[in-house]
Design brief:
Elements (H helix, E strand, L loop, with lengths): L1 E4 L14 E4 L2 E4 L17 H18 L15
Antiparallel strand pairs: 1-2, 2-3
Length: 79
């Protein structure tokens, strides 16, 4: 059984997908872009500001799922 993960602290999904989906003990995240959730606009600044916004968005989704970025596993790291 899967559970949709959604939070207002990250940009809403624009299209037929979710911010994340939990399946069992695993949460699958959708990609993020550097949108500011409150405005829906791309964050002002350089690539550093944009990368920080993306990770802030991912952190918000992880927390909505009951986790944190400390528990993220890259697929290619699994062997």
């Amino acid at each position: 059984m899967s559970q949709i993960i959604q939070t207002d602290r990250a940009p809403a999904a624009i299209g037929p997908y979710s911010q994340a989906v939990r399946s069992g003990n695993t949460v699958y995240f959708s990609g993020q872009i550097p949108l500011v959730p409150a405005t829906g606009e791309v964050v002002a600044g350089d690539i550093t500001a944009q990368a920080r916004q993306v990770f802030d968005n991912l952190k918000a989704v992880a927390e909505a799922a009951g986790g944190s970025l400390d528990r993220v596993v890259r697929p290619w790291a699994c062997t």
